[in-house]
Amino acid sequence: MASSPVIFNLTLPFTSHAPPVSSTCHTLSLSHSSLFTTPKIVCSSAQRRTCGVVYSHMTMEEKLPAENRMLVYVPPHPLIKHWVSVMRNKQTPCPIFRNAMAELGRLLMYEAARDWLPTVSGEIESPVTVASVEFIDPRQPVAVIPILRAGLALAEHASSILPATKTYHLGISRNKETLQPAIYLNKLPEKFADGCKIFVVDPMLASGATMVAALNLLKERGVDNKHVKVISAVAAPPALQKLSEQFPGLHVYTGIIDPEVHEKGFIIPGLGDAGDRSFGTDS
After folding, report:
1. Counting CB atoms within 10 angstroms of each CB, which of 28, 174, 255, 282 has the fewest?
2. Residue 3, Cα to own-chain centre: how many angstroms?
3. Which of 136, 188, 195, 135 is nearest to 166 (CA)?
4. Which DSSP string do the residues of the chain spell out, in sequence order?
5. Each residue of 187-227: pLDDT tens digit?
6. Could you tell me the CA-to-CA distances from 10 to 40, 48, 53, 57, 249 in Å, in that order?
7. Dihedral sign of CA atoms 145, 19, 239, 152 in order
8. Over the Cα atoms of the chain, what is R_g?
9. Is the Cα torsion angle 75, 81, 83, 84 positive or negative in sign?
10. pTM of the prediction?
């Protein structure tokens, strides 16, 4: 049985340090008051296969409904830690880096699909006897949206995990001076099917500007946040803060949360430029 929530305060400001993620699989809830700069962590020992962080702007007295909280999952899987570590290494050559990115994406999408895709039940005849079975419902629309370029590597194995998916490409570049996003390719449909489950894939959530631009395009098309899951290799507090403010109810799945972003917009320690390292264009 789950114990009562335990509340404790962080001693470091959220703007420069990521909240700790337990390897023992807890659910974490983060809130902060407008009167204080130190965020508060609520830790419940309810058994889960992933670790979550919830960001919001509640006062100390308020409670945000569960459906309006943004959840950040860092699955405590040794293979996820392994592939992140392979990509961390600056000596990792391009083909191995890209393979590591693809394998990490496979694992994160597997976790994100858990308890999210509807199934249909029936009976089939096995070589021995009749068996009750469940399949992913083929009538449920599922879309994968990789943000170019690096999102292509992270989403490479999506079709092998998610049956009957459609892939819509979205190209967003970032100005190196202002760090603001510019959309140069948009293959999104004018409208998504009702109830469509959407995975938005971008390896690096640094400032959050690119992901905000992508999610705003979905919002313009009437997509509810609860139908979207973000897949990233590495996330940083500035991006998570921005997403939590603008997209309540969103779920983010990431390989690791790094502590900060430097003035040029790179996550520290991060992976470097994920696009350049995936496609061999890193000078």
Report:
1. 282
2. 28
3. 188
4. -PPPPEEEE-SS-TTTSPPP--TT--EEEEE--TT-SS-EEEEE----SS-EEEE----TT----GGGSEEEE----HHHHHHHHHHH-TT--HHHHHHHHHHHHHHHHHHHHTTTS-EEEEEEE-SSSEEEEEEE-TTS-EEEEEEETHHHHHTTTHHHHSTTEEE--EEEEE-TTT--EEEEEE---SSPPTT-EEEEE-SEESSSHHHHHHHHHHHHTT--GGGEEEEEEEE-HHHHHHHHHH-TT-EEEEEEE-SEE-TTS-EESS-S-HHHHHHT---
5. 999 999 998 999 999 999 999 999 999 999 999 999 999 99
6. 6, 23, 14, 16, 24
7. negative
8. 19
9. positive
10. 0.78
Q: Find where tokens 């096995």 sit.
A: 126
Q: Which residue has the tokens 């631009």?
A: 213
Q: Which two tokens stand for residue 202?
A: 């971008």
130, 198, 203: which is closest to 172 by C-alpha?
203
Retrieve residue 52's tokens: 């979550």
pLDDT tens digit string along 37-50?
Answer: 333 333 333 334 44
Cα separation, 42 vs 91, in Å, equals 39
Backbone torsions φ then ψ of 39, nearest 5 degrees:
-75, 165
- Write the pLDDT tens digit of every residue in 85-132: 999 999 999 999 999 999 999 999 999 998 888 899 999 999 999 999
Beta strands at 170-174 and 130-136: parallel, antiparallel or unpaired: unpaired
